[in-house]
Design goal:
The complex is a heterodimer of chains A (539) and B (154). Chain A is of the alpha/beta class and 539 residues long. Chain A is 43% helix and 15% strand. Chain A has 22 helices and 17 strands. In chain A, a hairpin with a 5-residue loop joins β13 and β14. In chain A, α7 packs parallel to α11, α8 runs antiparallel to α9 and α19 packs antiparallel against α20. Chain A is globular, with a radius of gyration of 24 Å. Chain B has 154 residues and is of the alpha+beta class. Chain B has seven helices and five strands, in the order ααααβααββββα. Chain B has a five-stranded mixed sheet, with helices on one face. In chain B, β4 and β5 form a beta hairpin. In chain B, α1 packs across α3. The two termini of chain B are 29 Å apart. The chains are: A alpha/beta (539), B alpha+beta (154). The interface between A and B is large, with 55 and 36 residues.
Chain lengths: 539, 154
């Protein structure tokens, strides 16, 4: 099948380049429209820029590059290749941006923020997210022009087993929080009998404080789709479902658009690139709830059942969706594969620390000057993320608590800031990297209130299937309320610990098994705060 | 225009194969039509997919983003998750709650505004965030949210 696919792809790439060449000599304005920048007016900025534009310039819509603090951003590239970065653009700035673009450049809007953007990017290593915020997220031509779908073409020119081998060599592990080697799942699905086989891409991203998959879907939808196709080819899968969070409308729109365009080019459908290989892709929407991110829960919801987990024996790669072999990968995992295929497994595994290879997307927010989506090698310390990338807290504030990994993980004290990010556990008390949320908090928030908030979240989101989680999580909140109000005793601390251990030991799903972690980590790092509150009687 | 059992059934038949896997897409469709899931609509979804209404209801009520009760004419949601909380999201929530005289999850007696606190709007990079009538606003302040409410009441 290889030669025909290569020829078909060469034709597609040539016609994309032809269309791109027709725009050469014009000024290009990339307006970053993502779910975050949309909330601060980016869509209106894009609309007004396009409306006022002379013939010598054109606009493309990209996703956000991750520098959320600087949005809305517009990047002007002149015919000579000069770049001007406009930050925190408002409708009042549009006239000057358009006039500047018409005259071959112009002055940047908010250059001080632009300087911050450079500092934000300097310590990062962009591999999976290279091109994010720069390449067109709506039209496919620029993605192809930048080498897009070459990874797929390369994959199709060899045997599926070779693709699995390359991904295995790269050391790629699942980026949703469990860090299971991707190649093992693919191999498992490939070797199991039963058709059709499915790929379900977990784009549910319902964990508070995480927004990296939305950035991928909005900024690099074609790359995500290419990753799906590579995975499907390697693992021998017939149908791809991209399971997207109910609220992530822009993400769903961009991914659907990517599927439609890829289908029109013959990259998705009954005969991919004339190779005879068939694959279909479809968007499915979740309907809210943290537990939807648990992979067996996701399968239940796709089958029309209640939103609750099921037993993981048999594993989904043996009997998953409708009891067929099913690979479930996180969006970030899948989006990393085109880079691994096109740049090679060595390029991906060149960064990292010890066994933990590659980069991780981090959602950085809370008490930092430069919140946003970050890509950094495994082994990067929280200090580097919070201070070097994020610029640290506003002056006069100091970090007191490090909330890492969301409500399934926990909190650490500020002196743990030199902890490196690693797949899995960051501290034995139950702190994990999870999906990569890093939320430093300052003295304005009391750590006991923070822990109560995380515990209450787990209680609210418990689906109710398993008694330890359903009954235990509200009891944790009640005990925390007693401590916080000053009516607690040392027995409450014992009970909190006991409850957390039981919840973690006796719940079925991944999330229930971690629902005691906020309490366990807080008791470890902030035991004094609990004791002081109990002794002072809340005063 | 979907107004009754017959028109809904026809619309479902045109859009969704008779397959239990279509339950969530069909519920989304119903939700888009009405802004919530009316009981009679869930029953029709069950007829179409060959599922008992109790199963449809059981699945529908397990999702946090599907509304069973009809909301007010305008819906205000204020994010109070950790990143927004750190940047003042709870100050906005309590100010709005006081202004409207409503706890989270309730609708004003004239049916104009439903107020809800949400755990995360996934706009942590532009915190604090609020959603008003399905549109998110980042870097919100108490004043900017009051202006949204006042604008809707005019």
């Amino acid at each position: 099948m290889s030669e025909k696919a290569a020829q078909s792809f060469a034709r597609i790439a040539a016609s994309a380049r032809e269309r791109l060449d027709a725009r050469a000599g014009k000024t290009r304005i990339a307006v970053q429209v993502g779910h975050c920048s949309q909330a601060v007016g980016a869509a209106e900025v894009a609309r007004d820029i396009e409306a006022g534009l002379p013939d010598t310039a054109y606009v493309v819509t990209t996703g956000c590059d991750g520098a959320c603090f600087a949005g809305p951003q517009a990047l002007v590239t002149t015919a000579d290749g000069d770049q001007i970065r406009h930050c925190r653009v408002t409708l009042d700035d549009v006239a000057s941006i358009v006039a500047g673009a018409a005259n071959g450049g112009g002055e940047p809007v908010n250059p001080d923020v632009g300087a911050q953007v450079e500092e934000f990017f300097a310590p990062q290593h962009r591999a999976t997210t290279r091109g994010m915020g720069e390449v067109d997220a709506v039209g496919v031509d620029e993605y192809i022009g930048e080498g897009g779908f070459e990874g797929l073409a390369k994959a199709l020119s060899g045997a599926p087993e070779d693709v699995i081998e390359t991904v295995s060599d790269s050391g790629l592990r699942g980026r949703g929080g469990a860090y299971f080697p991707a190649a093992i799942k693919w191999r498992g699905a490939r070797s199991n009998p039963g058709r059709p086989k499915y790929l379900v891409v977990n784009c549910e991203e319902g964990e508070p404080g995480i927004f990296k998959d939305r950035h991928l879907m909005e900024g690099l939808p074609f790359q995500l789709l290419e990753g799906c196709l590579i995975a499907a080819y390697a693992a021998g899968l017939d149908q791809v479902y991209l399971y997207i969070n109910a609220e992530a409308n822009l993400s769903a729109q961009r991914v659907q658009n990517a599927i439609d365009q890829a289908r029109a080019l013959g990259l998705v459908g009954g005969d991919v690139l004339g190779s005879g290989w068939a694959v279909e892709a479809e968007v499915r929407r979740g309907a809210g709830g943290y537990v939807c991110g648990d992979e067996t829960t996701m399968l239940n919801t796709m089958e029309g059942k209640r939103r609750e987990p099921r037993m993981k024996d048999p594993l989904p790669v043996i009997a998953g969706l409708w009891a067929r072999p099913t690979v479930i990968n996180n969006a970030e995992t899948i989006a990393s594969t085109p880079y691994i295929l096109s740049a090679g497994s060595d390029a991906y595994s060149a960064v990292g620390s010890g066994d933990a290879r590659g980069t991780k997307l981090i959602s950085l927010s809370g008490s930092v000057r430069r919140p946003g989506m970050v890509e950094a090698p495994m082994g990067t310390t929280l200090r580097e993320l919070i201070h070097d990338v994020g610029g640290g807290p506003e002056s006069g504030r100091s970090i007191t608590t490090l909330a890492v990994g969301g409500p399934s993980s926990g909190v650490m004290s500020a002196d743990m800031i030199d902890t490196p990010i690693m797949p899995g556990s960051l501290h034995d008390s139950g702190v994990m990297l999870g999906a990569g949320g890093v939320v430093p908090l300052d003295e304005r928030l009391d750590v006991l209130d923070v822990v109560r908030d995380l515990a209450a979240y787990n209680a609210d989101e418990s689906c109710g299937k398993c008694t330890p989680c359903r009954e235990g999580t509200p009891l944790q909140v009640a005990a925390l309320d007693r401590v916080i109000s000053g009516s607690g005793t040392s027995e409450d601390m014992e009970e909190l610990k006991h409850l957390a251990n039981v919840i973690n030991a006796a719940s079925l799903c991944n999330l229930g098994q971690l629902a005691g972690n906020p309490v366990l980590s807080a008791l470890h790092f902030f035991g004094d705060a609990f004791e002081n509150r109990i002794e002072s009687g809340g005063g | 225009m979907i107004t009754d059992q017959r028109t809904l059934r026809r619309a479902l038949r045109d859009r969704f194969p008779r397959d239990h896997g279509q339950l969530l897409p069909a519920l989304h469709f119903l939700h888009e039509q009405f802004g919530h899931l009316p009981d009679w609509g869930m029953e029709v979804v069950g007829w179409h997919l060959g599922m008992p209404a109790s199963e449809v209801y059981g699945a529908a009520t397990s999702y946090t983003e599907l509304r069973i009760d009809k909301p007010g004419a305008h819906v205000l949601r204020v994010c109070t998750g950790l990143p927004c909380w750190q940047q003042g999201g709870r100050d906005i929530a309590s100010a709005v709650s006081d202004d409207l005289g409503l706890p989270s999850g309730q609708t004003t007696t004239d049916g104009a505004i439903t107020f809800e606190e949400v755990e995360c709007g996934f706009l942590c990079g532009v915190a604090p965030a609020v959603e008003f009538d399905h549109r998110w606003h980042g870097r919100a302040t108490v004043e900017s949210v009051r202006a949204l409410i006042a604008g809707a009441r005019q």
